[in-house]
Amino acid sequence: MAVRAERADQGHEKAAEMKAREGKHSFWDNLIPLKGGHFGDQLAGWTPGPPVKTRLGCRILADQMIEVAPAIALAADVYMPKVSGRYPAIVSFAAYSKELQAAGVPAGNNETGSPPVFTERGYVHVIVTRRGMGRSGGKDAVYLNDTDVEDHAKVIQWAAAQPWCDGQVVLFGTSYYGMTQPQVARLRPPALKGFFANEMCTDFFRHIAMFGGAPQPDFFALWMGANFTPFQFALRVPPLVRALVSHIANSPLKHLWWPLVKKRMTRFMKAFQRQVPTRPTRELFAEFMLDGKTRATAAMPQGPSGALADIEAPFVVVQNPGYLNLHQFGAYDLFENAGTPRDQRWLIIGPASFDLPVYHWQLEALAFFDHLLYGADNGYAAQARVRYWIEGVDAYGSAANWPLPGSTPLRLYLASSGADAGTHRLTREPSEGGTNRWAAIPLGGTVCAGFDEVANQRLTFEMPVEEEMELSGPVTLSLSFSSNEIDSYVVARAGRRSADGSYHLLSMGAIRPACRRVDEARSTATEIAIDIDAPEPLTPGIPVTLRFSLTPQPVVLKPGEQLVLDIGSRTDLLRSDVSHGHAQFDMQVPPYYSRNALHYGPDSYIELTRAAPRVPARISI
Q1: For the purposes of burial, counting CB atoms within 10 Å of the CB of 542, is it exposed (0-12), middle (13-18) or buried (19 or more)?
Q2: What is the crossing angle of helices 217-227 and 279-286, to 10°?
Q3: How far is CA 596 from the centre of its chain?
Q4: pLDDT for position 618
Q5: Which of 86, 141, 306, 504 could serve as a FRET partner for 79 with CA atoms 20 to 30 Å apart?
Q6: What distance in Å separates the CA atoms of residue 612 and residue 609, rounded to the nearest whole number?
Q7: Is pLDDT above 60 for 138?
Q8: Dihedral in degrees, nearest 10, Cα atoms 39, 43, 45, 47
Q9: Sign of the C-alpha dihedral, residues 252, 255, 261, 266?
């Protein structure tokens, strides 16, 4: 108890010391200007009109304390233009340390964008750390909790009241920084004028914790080991050091060293998994993996899905198809179900991309903010409600809605070509019946040498493309399935094989067969939500119907190419390396050694969405 009291006293002293610094620009903090970065995709197929403000520079007010409760204040770094004035504020709020956010280092939590990119254009960038992390007061708790949401709203109002702010606040960020935005937008803080979210989720239980009905230990071990270790909680990096690092990390040399780092990213990820998180973080990991397997028992908050109609603020949401079992489907849920007027919401589906730090879409966000806050006639109001990157032609398409108006379903039935290990067919008409089987082996399961020669672990189906077609929209897989065990796991991957033989991954989905009941209330036009709260064990050998969604990836298929569908029982057997632009995490499934069987007929098909002929022409970049 005495130790806790001493730590509390030290905490109050630090808070008081930091409070005294508020509003004062330190000479040393600003001795070297921070260098900004624009690495990655910036604009979705267009060129905005001239910016409202330019070349305003960047300076920092470090470690500003924002009181959110008695004796509890959150630490924030405030980056503002060098030119004095009152500007709109861009707030980025998450559980991560703020100490390296502006440095440009390739850390997985650097997802706020580059502050000088915003300050140069007449915005104040406020990066905030939630309770319990780093210099922020209070106690660490489960991620994305309701207290965090309320604190986020208080930070928005605090920023609006500062002498450097004109009273208008918007939000920007990726992943965690994106997921917090719809949550707080539901509370409608008066100063919040809009938000720009990239790679986000709306249902934290089904989109993160229990993807496809199974927990994600690979992701959580990596994420916690990278972000919530004692080192991260205690990290202190002076602004001067951040600025020095930014000149190295954001130099043109990044085009040389980043591809080398990217090729070794899997090795780095495994190294983070070996780091030991704090004890409270480890307790959360145990809860997620062992106890939180239903909505009723999960510590992870539900998220705003189902209550998105409370949102009124204008927004842009960006989907990155490259994260195959994380950050999928939330963007479509938000775009479809938010209460924001239809003419004030935009959806961008970008190319599959994996880059660190995430500097993507900063210029797109600034064009949106200039339009929204400064009333700029820069062309944003005329942008299509949906813009989407089309694989195969490397261009953006545009539409008034998602799924695309005028699109039609394209149902292709699965048909056997004979032996299980052969290449099977996708046909326009249902197959007359029969089965093919594949082996389901748990991740890390012991098998004898040469096992794959006697028991194939996936089924492959192909269809030659005879006419050019654009597939842009929801993807549904229906399988008549049985197993000789009471449960398993099914993973499906769609791709295209070019005329030169190269393979291009398009989409992926997964389902736990014992959890196959459709949750109609949570489903959207893009996602079949699965209710996993009441598992129904399989009867060995008795077929059941599995229906689940694959992640959409707009693509144009051309004559001479092949549409390819692979079905297996482990993500690692169908994975794509992060060096190719995709990131995915291994699922600790299936639970048993078993043989799975696909039964052919009218219930075994993949249904894609075929776009109508495009007018006007696609937007090329």
Answers
A1: exposed
A2: 170
A3: 31
A4: 53
A5: 141
A6: 10
A7: yes
A8: -120
A9: positive
- Give the Cα separation of 368 and 424 in Å (integer): 47
Is residue 40 within 8 A of residue 359, CB to CB? The reply is yes
**Angle, in degrees to the nearest 10, between helices 254-263 and 265-273:** 60
Q: Are 415 and 426 in contact, with CB atoms under 8 Å apart? A: yes
pLDDT at residue 20 in the model: 40
Helix/strand/coil (H, E, C) string of 236-297? Answer: CCCHHHHHHHHHHHCCCCHHHHHHHHHHCHHHHHHHHHCCCCCHHHHHHHHHHHHHCCCCCC
Confidence grade of residue 3 (pLDDT, cut at 50, 70, 90)? very low
Q: How far apart are CA 151 and CA 479, in angstroms?
A: 45
Report the side by side order of strands in the sheet with 395-399: 59-69, 72-80, 124-129, 87-94, 165-174, 192-198, 315-319, 345-349, 386-390, 395-399, 619-620
Nearest of 605, 515, 516, 524 to residue 563 by alpha carbon: 605
Question: So what's the pLDDT on residue 577?
Answer: 66
Element (H, E) at 396: strand 395-399
Q: Return the bridge partners of 568, or none.
A: 458, 491
Q: What is the pLDDT of residue 240?
A: 97
Q: Sort residue 170 into left (φ over 0), alpha (ψ -120 to 50) or beta.
A: beta
pLDDT digits (tens, 9 = 90+) for 39-85: 999 999 999 999 999 999 999 999 999 999 999 999 999 999 999 99
For the chain, give the percent of residues with pLDDT over 90: 86
Could you tell me if 48 and 378 are in contact, meaning their C-beta atoms sit under 8 angstroms apart? yes
Across the chain, what does the average pLDDT equal? Answer: 93
The confidence band for 593, taking pLDDT boundaries of 50, 70 and 90, is: very high
pLDDT band at 326 (very low <50, low <70, confident <90, very high): confident
Closest CA to 220 of 208, 232, 207: 208
Residue type, 198: N
Q: Which residues of 472-484 are buried (b: 16+ CB within 10 A; e: fewer)?
A: bbbbbbbbbbbbb
Cα–Cα distance for residue pair 254/248, rounded to 1 Å = 8
**Residues near 239 by Cβ (< 8 Å), separated by ≥ 6?**
26, 28, 29, 30, 34, 60, 62, 77
Structure tokens at 359: 């500097």
Q: Band of the pLDDT at 17, cuts 50, 70, 90?
A: very low
Round to whole Å and give the CA distance between 508 and 571. 9
Residue 4 pLDDT greater than 70, yes or no: no
CA distances from 306 to 202, 530, 552 (A): 9, 14, 21
Per-residue H/E/C for 294-358: CCCCCCCCCCCCCCHHHCCCCEEEEECCCECCCCCCHHHHHHHHCCCCHHHEEEEECCCCCCCCC
Is 459 in contact with 567 (CB distance < 8 Å)? yes
Q: How far apart are CA 134 and CA 230, in angstroms?
A: 10
How far apart are the C-alpha atoms of 588 and 473, rounded to whole Å?
29
Q: Quick one: pLDDT at residue 578?
A: 66
Residues 6+ apart with CB under 8 A from 592: 440, 442, 485, 486, 487, 488
pLDDT of 119: 98
Assign 115 to helix, strand or coil: helix
Cis peptide bond prior to 559, omega within 30° of 0: no
What pLDDT digit, counting tens, does each position of 428-468 carry?
999 888 999 999 999 999 999 999 999 999 999 999 999 99
